[in-house]
Inverse folding.
């Protein structure tokens, strides 16, 4: 796990493997790492309504789906910022929707940081005809470092997590009818829409995750496709 990163800028420039690259090598490990981050944060808080194992697992799946570009240093910085109240205080409860909305806020801050760094590099390039602070482009450096670090990072994470489960998963409930499944997905859509992912366009409700946008129909279609797969 990353240890020495305290700022978004440090995370961006860390060269630590992204969540997506870890998932391509070991999908289960990527999920377990996010579960570990969330579990540690939930245990840190002292609130009345907390998250159970099933909720943590579902949240980790959504993080994997919508934030694969973030690296492990990003998640360390994000959850430390959450602990110190950078994204607000948590008085009575914590849930997956809140974590996802705050992670989107972090993502926006991160994009602003990257944009500012690129602007400064562009200014240096205009002044000198090249960027004296960069021997290679940032993309080239990150790609090289991630390729060399990924196998080692995966082994370190596997060793750290070991066989021990940080949370005990709640027993799975059997859903007997298509109606039950549909109602659950409708509630998920409403919960996400009422959070910071909802947007009304031409009178229609959409969920917006980065550049992806889903109305209720496409959201349900995605759910059914995932169920079939």
């Amino acid at each position: 796990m990353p240890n020495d990163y305290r700022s978004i800028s440090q995370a961006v420039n860390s060269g630590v493997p992204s969540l997506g690259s870890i998932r391509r090598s070991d999908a289960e490990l990527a999920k377990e790492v996010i579960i570990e981050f969330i579990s540690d944060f939930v245990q840190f808080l002292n609130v009345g309504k907390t998250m159970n194992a099933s909720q943590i697992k579902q949240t980790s799946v959504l993080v994997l789906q919508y934030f694969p570009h973030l690296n492990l240093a990003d998640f360390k910085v994000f959850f430390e910022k959450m602990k110190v109240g950078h994204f607000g205080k948590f008085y009575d409860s914590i849930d997956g929707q809140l974590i996802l909305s705050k992670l989107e806020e972090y993502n926006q801050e991160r994009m602003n940081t990257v944009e500012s760094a690129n602007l400064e590099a562009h200014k240096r390039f205009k002044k000198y005809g090249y960027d004296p602070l960069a021997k290679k482009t940032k993309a080239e450096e990150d790609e090289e470092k991630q390729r060399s670090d990924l196998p080692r990072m995966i082994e370190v994470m596997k060793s750290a997590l070991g066989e021990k489960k940080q949370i005990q998963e709640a027993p799975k409930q059997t859903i007997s009818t298509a109606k039950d499944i549909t109602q659950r997905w409708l509630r998920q859509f409403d919960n996400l829409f009422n959070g910071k992912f909802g947007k009304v366009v031409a009178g229609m409700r959409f969920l917006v995750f980065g550049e992806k946008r889903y109305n209720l129909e496409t959201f349900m279609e995605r759910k059914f496709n995932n169920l079939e797969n």
